[in-house]
Design brief:
Blueprint (H helix, E strand, L loop, with lengths): L1 E2 L6 E2 L27 H9 L1 H11 L4 H36 L2
Antiparallel strand pairs: 1-2
Helix pairs in contact: 1-2, 1-3, 2-3
């Protein structure tokens, strides 16, 4: 069982192109079975978003499914940070209005 390096879809062992995205493989562009999504990598990316983004960029050509896990964790942490920042700004603005500052 192999996976496309471009879109991560499962391929037949003898595939020369991806039926999903149309990418044509040259020699070693097909990824082997060691590439699996990983909750541990996603958690690492969530706890340390910069490391998650670096792992995503480094692993994308060789292990796209594992890279996707790292990227999802990092992206989730970044989005949650933005939402929490907005909420804390709203709460502090409401608190300043209440106390008359």
């Amino acid at each position: 069982m192999k996976y496309c390096t471009t879109c991560g879809k499962e391929l037949a062992d003898n595939a020369v192109s991806c039926p999903n995205c149309g990418y044509v493989f040259s020699g070693g562009s097909v990824v082997g079975v060691n590439d699996k999504p990983s909750f541990g990598i996603a958690l690492l990316g969530f706890l340390f978003p910069l490391i998650g983004l670096i792992l995503y960029v480094v692993w994308k050509p060789t292990t796209p499914l594992r890279a996707k896990s790292a990227g999802k964790g990092a992206l989730t942490a970044i989005i949650m940070g933005i939402i929490l920042g907005i909420l804390s700004g709203i709460i502090s603005a409401l608190g300043a209005g209440y106390y008359g500052y």
